[in-house]
Amino acid sequence: MDYRAQIGIRFITRRRGSLIAASLAVAIAILVVQVNSVIFQGLYDAIVRDQINYRFGHVYITRQEDFITKSDFMLVNWLERIPYVQAAAPRIDSAASINATIGGKIVRDYSVPVIGVDPVLDREASTMYQTVAPGGQYVSYRDSVVVGAIVDRDLGYPQVGDTIKLKFKDQFGNDILRRLTIVGITATAGSVGLDNSVIMNIDTLREILDRPHQTQSILVKLSDPTKDTDVKDLFLAAFPSNADKFKAQTIEESAEQTLSGFRSGIALINLVGYFGMMSSAFAVVTIQMMQVTSKTRDIGVMRAIGAKRKDVLLVFIFQGMVIGAIGAGLGTVMGVTYTAYAKETHMTFQGSLPLEVKYNWTSIMQTDIMAFVLAVIASIYPAYKATRLEPVEAMRVG
Amino acid sequence: MADYVLEVKNVDKVYGQGDTEVYALRNLSFSVKRGEFMLIVGSSGSGKSTLLNMIGLLDRPTRGKVIIDGVDTSELNDNELSTFRNSKLGFIFQFSNLLSDLTVLENVTLPRKIQGTIQNSADEAKTLLKTVGLENQMHKFGNQISGGQAQRVAITRALIAKPAVVLADEPTGNLDSVSAETTVQLLKSLNRKLYQTFIIVTHDRHQFGEVDKVVTIKDGRILKEEMEANLA
């Protein structure tokens, strides 16, 4: 082993207090970044997951500025012939008015979103049916309706089996009043968009809106989500946009509005994490300065017997590498342990939305490398100070 | 022509400037032949340690030259001085100054590692450690051995790179009388056995008995220079 590495390693490993303090500073910085990643990246991924599961699928097909007039049966069948496609289902998004009681006051013509779903196909392409509270069922027959938990509250807590009145406007602006039977109440963790909605049979909604055989969107669920762009491109190639005016979007595109703000938030949180890492670098600088002070005499002796300034520099750089390596190792263990804990316990955000916890080894490696490099960079100034010591003076003061 | 391993020519060392100028050394000149055992003696504050620092290239003279093994060291830059110290000079300090985080063997081989000539260095270090009676201590750390033993380790460290001159600054100053006597005998025997040049700074001239040369310093000047024939 290079003698400078050997001395650097000995200097720091035989000062356990300094080694533990410096390594912990690095490790805790990594842990902070990891915890941030588990919580905020987990929350982001959970939102993406729920947006896929409930609203958009992996690929979301619509028609520019209008309803899809091609047969949904044909489109779903065409899509399901693509090997990566697991299922596809048509939907119509609309709105209806209810007379709600909000904060103890009756609010007339309170508008709620209405989602029209195919009772059979939607179970394959979406997990929305799983959000129905026990005792209820998903939309089945023509006049059945599933209400979101917030709508249910605003309606004064009607139960399964009760009927509610919804006022729609058809495509010509005529009011259509319909009485529908509640078959279930949905409650999604974190209220990801469904708790304030009403879900009903797509054919009933088509009939009310006077849009027979029309569809507003098609959700496509993939067996291999990485192929979303391929599926999108295949679809658009088969149905050229100038003819059908179809619009196909991956989840990143369809949920862009929801996700873009969140991405900025994650970037900010990561920045905070990396500032934490900078703080750990200052801790390393301080501990390394203390090391230089306590090793002043040894530096003087080394210089006297022929070590050059650069040799002294390397001793303390190697010392920083030891701190960085041990800190990164320790930080990885702590971070992975926390990630495993979050995954195994199905950690939720503020007690509601279950986080989508993943072992992001690329991110872990990047953080480790950054922490290691920072520990080494943090050692440069103390190492430089060590090289400035003159042998006679160093041996006298040391 | 005499085989001088060290020539000190008109060396001044001045601290401060203008009115605050203090001469630590003033117009010092002497030379040392290869294989000589020389003492630099003087009372505390006489300038003998400053002189040793000049000879040891740990400090530069304000004026004058230090020539070691025929090389004018005033011409050397910082890196060259380090290399020169490593290859031509061996140091024995008052407090042994072993690196406490290295073992005895690692301390002894350190100059060779710095030099980049590590081949056989461990074997040579073991042989030297056997010579000074420390073959059983070589795996102990620098702070796990006695002061006398540490000083003997320092002596082997000074010799491992086969320097032209070994410089010792009060090598017995921190030792009890028995260890001091052992150290003196060891230095003298190594001088005879290895034909190794030693320059030793001491305030206790009598401890060393017969030597080849004694330079007495007072107030930064050479008070007297005695050669072997004139020594009692």
Question: How would you characterize the overall build of this protein?
Answer:
The complex is a heterodimer of chains A (398) and B (232). Chain A is α+β, with helices and mostly antiparallel strands and 398 residues long. Chain A has 2 domains: 3-51 and 258-397, no CATH class; 67-244, no CATH class. Helices cover 55% and strands 20% of the residues of chain A. Chain A has helices at 3-13, 16-56, 72-80, 121-125, 149-154, 202-209, 228-238, 241-244, 251-254, 256-294, 296-304, 309-344, 361-387, 391-397; strands at 59-63, 85-102, 105-117, 144-148, 163-169, 175-186, 198-201, 217-222, 246-250, 348-349, 353-354. In chain A, the strands form 2 sheets. Chain A has a 9-stranded mixed β-sheet, sandwiched between helices. A two-stranded antiparallel sheet of chain A has the order 10-11. In chain A, helix 2 (16-56) crosses helix 12. Chain A is elongated and about 100 Å long. The mean pLDDT of chain A is 88. Chain B is of the alpha/beta class. Chain B has a single domain (35-61, 87-230), classed as Rossmann fold (3-Layer(aba) Sandwich), CATH 3.40.50. Chain B contains 6 helices and 10 strands. Chain B has helices at 48-55, 78-88, 104-115, 121-131, 147-159, 177-194; strands spanning 4-15, 22-33, 37-41, 63-68, 71-72, 89-92, 165-169, 197-202, 213-218, 221-227. In chain B, the strands form 2 sheets. Chain B has a 6-stranded mixed β-sheet with strand order 6-7-8-3-9-10. In chain B, strand 7, helix 6 (177-194) and strand 8 (197-202) form a beta-alpha-beta unit. Chain B is globular. Chain B starts with a strand and ends in a 5-residue tail after the last strand. The mean pLDDT of chain B is 88. Classes of the chains: A alpha+beta (398), B alpha/beta (232). Chain A binds chain B through residues 3, 6-7, 10-11, 14, 297-298, 300-309, 311, 390-392, 395, and chain B through 53, 56, 58-59, 78-79, 82-83, 85-87, 91, 93, 97-102, 106, 110-111, 113-115, 157, 161.
